[in-house]
Amino acid sequence: MLASAHAIGIGHETVRWAWPLAARAAWDLRDHAATSELVGLLGVYPDGHLGPMVRAERDLVRARLAAADGDPGGEAAFAAAIGGLRELSTPYHLAHGLLDYAQYLMRTGGAEAAPAAVEEARGIAGRLGCQPLLDRAEDLDRVRPRIPG
Fold first, then answer.
1. Separation of alpha carbons 68 and 82, rounded Å
2. What is the reported pTM?
3. What is the DSSP letter of 4?
4. CA–CA dist 137, 31 (Å, integer)
């Protein structure tokens, strides 16, 4: 489907939903080459040709890739991506982005800020009744270092 995006149009409804799913799947499989290839697929189009959700998800993917590469701008990239998800995407996609951000914070010494992102994502997941998101939040709680309060 995504390989034929040029034929049906990058703004087509099917592409709008398939691209974020493919990018999430590639990332979850730790296939950075496929993840980068998916970002590259969008790189040939001006932003105005991409749907708002796809732009927001692309920015999240770029933040994850930057963080994986140890880019010092990773936190700023995540903050910008979360802002884009809040404005342009769905609650489901925002919750995933918040959990990605929490994971990043836990890896980079920002563990004190991670609980707020996890809790916001958990609230969204609860409202959506989305068990996979609730499970992901719970998994992060298990690995998150406890900070004495």
1. 17
2. 0.87
3. G
4. 22
Task: Please state the φ and ψ torsions of residue 45, each to the nearest 5 degrees.
Answer: -110, 140
Per-residue pLDDT reduced to its tens digit, 58-99: 999 999 999 999 999 999 999 999 999 999 999 999 999 999
Tell me if residue 51 falls in helix, strand or coil. Answer: coil
Structure tokens at 121: 């994502």
CB 52 within 8 A of CB 90: no
- CA of 115: how far to CAs of 15, 41, 52, 142, in Å? 33, 34, 28, 12
Q: How far from chain centre, in Å, is Cα 43? A: 17
Question: Is residue 56 within 8 Å of 31, Cβ to Cβ?
Answer: no
Distance in angstroms (rounded) separating the CA atoms of residues 127 and 138: 16
With CA atoms as reference, report the closest residue to 60 among 139, 46, 87, 33. Answer: 87
- First and final C-alpha spacing in the chain: 50
At 46, which helix (H) or strand (E)? none
The separation between CA 19 and the C-alpha centre of its own chain, rounded to angstroms, equals 12
